Amino acid sequence: MLRSYIRKLSEKNAELQKQLRELNEKLQIAGQGKCRVHEQLVVLSEPKKVGPFGKLKSMRTNPPVLPDEFVNPRLAKLLAEVAVEKEVIVVLANSNVKSMLEVWGASVKRVGIPNYLVVALDDAIVDFCKENAVSVYKRDPDENVDFTGKTGSNQAVSGLTFRILREFLQLGYSVLLSDVDIVYLQNPFDYLYPDSDVESMSDGHNNITAYGYNDVFDEPDMGWGRYAHTMRIWAYNSGFFYIRPTIPAIQLLDRVTDRLTREPNSWDQAVFNEELAFPSNPGYIGLYASRRTMDFYLFMNSKVLFKTEEVEASCSSYKLSSR
User: Fold this and answer.
1) What is the pLDDT of residue 71?
2) At 100, which CATH number?
3) Which of 215, 185, 165, 196 is nearest to 64 (CA)?
4) Does any domain span residue 164?
5) Which of 10, 51, 53, 226 has the fewest CB atoms within 10 Å around its CB?
6) Is the separation of the CB atoms in 165 and 242 below 8 Å?
7) Inter-residue contact 78 to 117 (CB < 8 Å)
8) What pLDDT is stored for residue 28 in this prediction?
9) What domain count does the chain have?
10) How confident is the model at residue 61 (pLDDT cuts 50, 70, 90)?
């Protein structure tokens, strides 16, 4: 009788804590939306005079949020043990991608990367990680996540990423999000520039496609105005990006999660890029998150690896993607 009573109290306590977390999140969102103008105006210091020509530099590194361990005390404790300098690699996995997780984990261990964490979406992955001494975290039960997490394809699981990453950022940790179809040859943290809200791998395969170019559209019927200039850049890979714990970064996660919920047929990578790129316009408030493109020779996608570059034993690149 006593054990049963204690178990019921524990379950009730867990439910109340979950409700309290949800209320706190709603209060934070409400507070952020009081005034659109004030959202964009953050005064970090006294106004300064403009310096000499060529010496002026604007801010692109937003300040980190104040960590809130109450959001998820269990995850906070685990991250304190696993993370290095408040940074961690995170990968989501269920049983459908177990074979890829084996390869992923083997490359992480071979390189000697200590700060990584597998977010297990079913019990089989928890058991696999424990048997192979892989750092693992199993989320608390959530009906909105569990069904897709346990039965979904690799792409469906990728869509859950943005919802799950929010807690990591709220706890004050920078995350290098990695899909499971990744191989590491060196420690990626040695080659990142943590100066932007989001730093992402590119689907581009050369300087112009990865870093941007002026694409000119020719319409002869327009006479002297026939040439229309467009700015083009190939998409960021939503399966491999570094994200800092800032307000714009968390807002990005919220926006992508909201759209994927309302638009179930949307592709998470397309939504991710649209929310990062589209500017404010009549009827739409854009997201003012700073972004950086990863070096495409260091963080290689499959097109760069198999078409642009010859695969050699002496290859110095350290990150490969099977995409």
Assistant:
1) 93
2) 3.90.550
3) 196
4) yes
5) 53
6) no
7) yes
8) 63
9) 1
10) confident
